[in-house]
Predict the 3D structure of the following.
Amino acid sequence: MKKLAIDGGKPLRPKGFPERFPYDKRELDIITKIMKLSIKTGIPFRYNDKYSKIYEKKFIKFMNGGFCNLVNSGTNALLASIASLKLKTKSDILVPCLTDVGCVTPIIILGFKPIPVDICKKNFNVSLDEIKKKITKNTSAVIVAHIGGEVTDIDKISKYLKSKKIKLIEDCSQSHGAMYKKNKVGTFGDISFFSTMSSKLHTTGGTGGVIFSRYKNLIHNSKLFSDRGKYFQNSKFTGKYISTGLNLTIDELSSAIGTIQLDKLSLTIKRTNFIGEYIKKKLIDNKSPSKISGQYKNTFNVYWFLRITLDLTKIKVSKKKYCEALKKEGLSLSEKYIYNPFYQKWIKDHKFKKKLKFPNYDQSLKKNYVIFIRENYNKKDVQDIIRIIKKVDNEFKK
């Protein structure tokens, strides 16, 4: 048996694994083309122009119809999404406790109250049961995320909220192209938003975001809000500002990058799904105490990362030491997926008189860890993930 790296042995992957790098000559060529044209004509590139329109058309095609609005970040995509819904003033918006802080601050900024919802016991997503616990007469909307690219029980949630006349906002930041019964996430809510920052499955450069809806009026409202309330007719600014808003627009360079990225997205989705499903099967075959479980039927998951549940009854060491051993072998992971903005003091103190408790989230920190995967991993990279886990299991499994 080979000695573990944590005990002084040779790590299986001394140089670790490749980072996600989504760009190639195609992005360079299109950026260069825009810059050269701008220099040649003396006209600076701006926004809401040629490439923004191309990007919108491609994204709508990707979503199989609908309407969209491009903005400069995922956080601002949520900000404009909430504004578009014209919700009751000072009403409550339910939001997962496991999320980025950028999913809470827009609620507060717009004058609504964020009501945290605990995740379910089986994965990182909220469930209908947990949502029902927090709904009151003052609830106007619910934000539901598909964390890590794993689809939540979105059909049940959508139907229930519709029956209650409560708006559904889907957070698809980590789940571009994930599906439930062959329907893409982002199509179940009244409105949805995507982050396109550099780490996501398709990107517009350093940062960016997309708002999507099947309802034209909601996208119209979001466009007004995200461009300072400017009123356009036939794609031309009338000189009128007809509502409040901010400048959340995305520029032509970012949009151009997005057009190329959307051409690559189909392959990226296939790769991340294949890698995740392959590793899931191998962990079962190897009878590893690490496993991917708790997923819903009829879902197609895109695995922005792998949520691994560790059976602590089947290992001789702590979860912390087990994960440290995996890391020392070169595996890219996080022992705990700590993303609960409601444990941040400034949010915790924001109109919450009672101490907030999230038993399912807290329990998830004890039993789950996260492995980061990239669509650019080759066959050896994927095999080495399995080999590393098996090596550590051989030493620490009971």
